[in-house]
Design brief:
With 190 residues, the protein is an alpha+beta fold. The protein has 2 domains: 119 residues, no CATH class; 41 residues. The chain contains 8 helices and 3 strands. The longest helix is centred in the middle third of the chain and has 20 residues.
Length: 190
């Protein structure tokens, strides 16, 4: 799973950065994002959830031609002014002042249920618009790229031309020709 941040070039809200930096909990964010994406894929719809640190996020599956290609995340806002107990305790145990944490948490944007529902609808509509207008598309790998990808994936194995051709469903001569072209060599006898 690769994270792409579009728009603001930062890794999240001030509260999120504080939790990840001071408590070193970035790994929990990544793990939870992965689990929510799996849930989103299984349910085949937008999922709204509260992360372990108390922030609310919206995750929407992005599909092109019926194929799931990614997920859109919107959020890092609060729907409750109370800090999660676990985070408060971890903060105290680390020797930090809870008031500092509360101040940053409560400075996060707050949304009530109606506004949250509207944001979910808006998020889904925006992603649908982007996909239907073909601002995003799936680029198919060319033969040479498929060969190079296959070689990269199997670099630790002894590779034979026939194995590559069989795996990629091309003829031996096509694979040979494309490799020679990529390496800048003239077509010669194998």
């Amino acid at each position: 799973m690769e994270e792409m941040i579009i728009g603001l070039q930062n890794p999240g809200s001030a509260y999120c950065r504080l939790i990840q930096g001071k408590l070193r909990l970035r790994y929990r964010c990544c793990r939870q994002d992965k689990l929510v994406c799996t849930r989103c894929e299984q349910q085949r719809k937008t999922v709204v959830y509260n992360c372990y640190a108390g922030l609310t996020e919206i995750v929407t599956p992005i599909k092109i031609d019926g194929k799931l290609i990614s997920y859109g995340f919107a959020g890092q806002f609060i729907t409750d002014y109370r800090l999660p107990q676990e985070i408060t305790q971890l903060w105290k145990n680390a020797g930090f002042d809870v008031k500092d944490l509360q101040d940053v948490y409560r400075a996060s944007p707050f949304f009530e249920k109606t506004a949250l529902d509207n944001m979910c609808n808006l998020s889904s509509m925006m992603l649908d618009f982007i996909v239907t207008r073909k601002y995003v598309s799936i680029r198919r790998l060319g033969v040479t790229e498929q060969i190079m990808h296959y070689i990269d994936e199997h670099i630790a194995e002894p590779l034979k031309l026939d194995d590559v051709a069989s795996a990629l469903k091309y003829s031996r001569s096509t694979i040979s020709h494309m490799i020679k072209r990529k390496l800048g060599r003239k077509q010669e006898q194998d």
